[in-house]
Automatic annotation (TrEMBL):
InterPro entries assigned: Endo/exonu/phosph_ase_sf, Endo/exonuclease/phosphatase
Molecular function in Gene Ontology: catalytic activity
The protein, known as: Endonuclease/exonuclease/phosphatase domain-containing protein
Extent of the signal sequence: none
Residue ranges annotated for the Endonuclease/exonuclease/phosphatase domain, each copy included: 6-227
Stored PANTHER family: BNAC02G09200D PROTEIN, ENDONUCLEASE_EXONUCLEASE_PHOSPHATASE DOMAIN-CONTAINING PROTEIN
Pfam families, sorted: Exo_endo_phos
């Protein structure tokens, strides 16, 4: 599924319309999100009439020469339902196999700090939704000083960044990795007055990352525009690369692990010492994979089972007919439950590649998020073949 986001700064110009049609044809788009359309209700209708009958649309008109959002989608998408409109945001749900239903929020944030605070408040109100959520748009704010080149940062710009970062952190959102120029906006002035900034981006929650784990964002050429179009490609993985062997730190607690190491290292190997060591390591990897693989993956099931057993015994202990023998049974269960929790935390901390772990910190939800971010960073977006051509299709990569 291919989606484009573009701050087109008006939809009435012939060059703008030509580029939109070119983007649709070139990238086989199914969803087109245009912000700062500068089009009132009638101009919006006239623009959308230019598209054939297989396209549908929803829009928020501009106020005077400011703002405006238009969303176009192909009718062969299973279902698109606009659910809420405001001056700066349009929310819609989209269902399209093989993906789960998403909520998408298209944002054109205001220039003033007060308008931006109102936008964050509006988005905060739906941030606890249960399903996949993606937010894309021109946020008119940067996150760090590195996202701007040229010009000066005043206190108001700093406040915008603070509110923007707080919104992202408080709602556990992630930014999608991108390829292309680092800045998405330029004022197109010359010399020392030229300014670049990254104002446009795509955010999502962890449920969206679960559903669309294979995706890529490209910052396309601005050409004569102030803003770069952002192209988002999402697909389901149709091929599976063989995963490399990784030692699970929880195996240290298993007798099978120690037995395998002891047995294989005591095996006599002939030939060069380096070759013998390599052969032992290979045999150890095979043996550990066979005997220990899956132990940590079953921890959640074990934790659930032992919690159910503890709940049952604690309920019996509270009854008038209970005796002191129940405590004798409960005590080792408590210890085993704590051990499983520590192992579960260790497993996800290792997957997220965190080298630190504070005592008592068992925030496995955070580790899940870090693991997904690393998986996203490991995706290869493009590669150059022998002919020097950039290849972007996943199967070809």
């Amino acid at each position: 599924m291919n989606i484009i986001l573009w701050n087109c700064r008006g939809v009435t110009g012939k060059d703008t319309v030509s580029r939109i049609f070119n983007l649709i044809k070139t990238y086989n788009l199914v969803l087109v999100c245009l912000v700062e359309t500068r089009a009132d209700t009638q101009r919006t209708r006239n623009f959308c009439k230019k598209f054939k009958k297989q396209w549908d649309w929803a829009a928020t008109p501009a106020r005077g020469y400011s703002g405006g959002i238009i969303i176009l989608w192909k009718k062969d998408i299973e279902k698109v339902t606009p659910i809420c409109f405001s001056r700066h945001v349009i929310h819609l749900t989209i269902s399209n196999n093989p993906f789960k239903p998403w909520i998408i929020s298209i944002v054109y944030n205001g220039q003033s700090l007060e308008e931006q605070k109102a936008t964050w408040k509006e988005l905060d109100s739906i941030a606890n939704i249960a399903g996949p959520w993606m937010i894309l748009g021109d946020f008119n704010a940067i996150r760090t000083l590195e996202e701007k080149k040229g010009g000066q940062m005043n206190w108001r710009s700093g406040m915008k960044s603070n509110y923007f970062n707080s919104f992202i952190v408080n709602n556990n959102l992630s930014e999608l990795k991108f390829s292309g120029p680092p800045f998405t906006w330029c004022n197109n002035q010359r010399g020392g007055s030229r300014i670049w900034a990254r104002l446009d981006r795509i955010l999502c929650n962890d449920k969206w990352l679960d559903d669309a784990s294979y995706h890529q964002v490209s910052h396309l050429a601005r050409c004569q525009s102030d803003h770069s179009p952002l192209l988002l490609k999402c697909w389901k993985q149709e091929y599976h690369n063989k995963k490399p062997f990784r030692f699970d730190n929880n195996w240290i607690h298993l007798p099978e692990c120690h037995k395998s190491v002891e047995t294989i290292w005591e095996t006599e190997e002939l030939g060069n010492p380096m070759h013998a060591t390599s052969h032992r390591l290979h045999n150890l990897k095979t043996d550990l994979t066979k005997k220990c693989m899956g132990y940590s993956r079953n921890l959640e099931k074990k934790i659930k089972q032992i919690k159910e057993h503890i709940t049952e015994l604690e309920s019996r202990e509270c009854s008038y007919r209970s005796n002191g023998d129940i405590w004798t049974t409960l005590r080792p269960l408590y210890m085993k439950h704590q051990a499983y929790l520590r192992q579960h935390t260790t497993y996800w901390a290792q997957k997220s590649r965190l080298q630190w772990l504070q005592n008592g910190d068992c925030n496995t939800k955070y580790f899940h998020q870090m693991s997904k971010n690393h998986r996203n960073n490991n995706i290869i977006l493009y590669i150059k073949n022998k002919e020097g051509t950039l290849v972007t299709e996943p199967a070809e990569i």
